[in-house]
Amino acid sequence: MSQTKTDKAWEILFERHKILQNVQQNGFFEIQAKEIKEVREPRLMAKFDHFSHLPKLFKDHGLSILPISRSSYVIGEFDVYEKVSYNEKLKPIQVEFPANITTIDPANLYSESSALHCAHVTGMMEMLLGEPSFQTISGRMSSKEFDFMIRTRKGNEKLINIKNSQIEIDGGYESQSQFMIVEAKNETVEDFLVRQLYYPFRLWKEKTDKEVKPVFFTYSNDIFSFFIYEFTDPQKYNSLKLVEQKDFIIAHEELELEDIVEVFHAVQTVPEPEIPFPQADSFTRVVDLLGLLVENDMSKDHITRNYAFDERQTGYYTSAGMYLGLIEKYTDENKQVMFTLTKAGRGIMGLRTKDKFLSLTEMILAHEPFKQVLAEYLQNGSLPEKARVIEIMKRCSLYNVQSESTYFRRASTVIGWINWILELPETY
């Protein structure tokens, strides 16, 4: 895989400051922002919201980085991420959108802040807290001073001292007896950086005598997912424990299997485009990417740096969107390749829940391999085996797919997308 600018810059710094040797000797290494800045802007070099974002050298040696003040960072073999497992069996609770609210469009919640505001006005926060709440804080603030223990990958614990590090809170909600801190992402994620909840938790635990509730929130595919945590030992970074997950959705017309069958019978297939056949197994992530592009056009680098996609996935998922005719690319004035939604993509993403997912189903089934695999499911009541899916694909004259191994990999996408369609009535 190609090296990123961040990878190259960290190679220089590791060499210059003998970072690896220092970590092996002392268990950690402190680096100043100004030392990082000699090579590249610190904000691009030290903020990795997901494990997949870490530079290659960090991944190879099991390292991570945390800010300890406004001008310094600590690097060590620390365990800083928490895995997120979505409970697939959870049926989202339907909430009504208030008819008198005109400044939030529930069909257009593609920024983290608009999703959080919508969650608040529809009473989700109240249901999580069990009492009415007010949003009281958001944005950047100073962590003040505190210290904590963090686990290293060897199972030891290291004491870290924080002094006025900058923190950012997406939303803080105060009720009569609780204060809920929310870290928000507008996509499905595999993990998150515990620091984004822990530093604010420690700050506000000192400032209020109310119970401080750390909550991680994602808005993806029209579902509001809240992961309510507790730190079982406030002095320990790694004492995060999941209490419960709660999912919500804005009340909408139910989506039935009959609706999908109707789309299946009505859809006209299109000739296969001269675009690589998709290798993007999770259609949920395709929808996330479309949602991210509603707000802004983005370059490949921007998508990779800011969202839970690694470089390879960004390539696969933008290409999948182009295959469906929902994303296109252009070159901007800086000669940078940018991705944008097509007219069809923008139109679909502005629809209400049921219409949006049926329109996306239609875009998938307009392609022969997907339509034929679904036809076999509707006929037999079960999905065909992978070998049979490959057989179907081979009859559909796919663009530039020749080798057996490529067919095998792409068949996973066909099965993944058809499963996504078949799960719609369960979820929506």
Automatic annotation (TrEMBL):
Record-linked InterPro entries: DUF6996 (IPR054265), DUF6997 (IPR054266), DUF7226 (IPR055650)
DUF7226 domain segment(s): 285-425
Pfam families: DUF6996, DUF6997, DUF7226
Location of the DUF6996 domain: 7-75
Highest taxon of the lineage: Bacteria
Domain DUF6997: 76-249
Protein name as it appears in the record: Translation elongation factor
Organism field: Bacillus benzoevorans
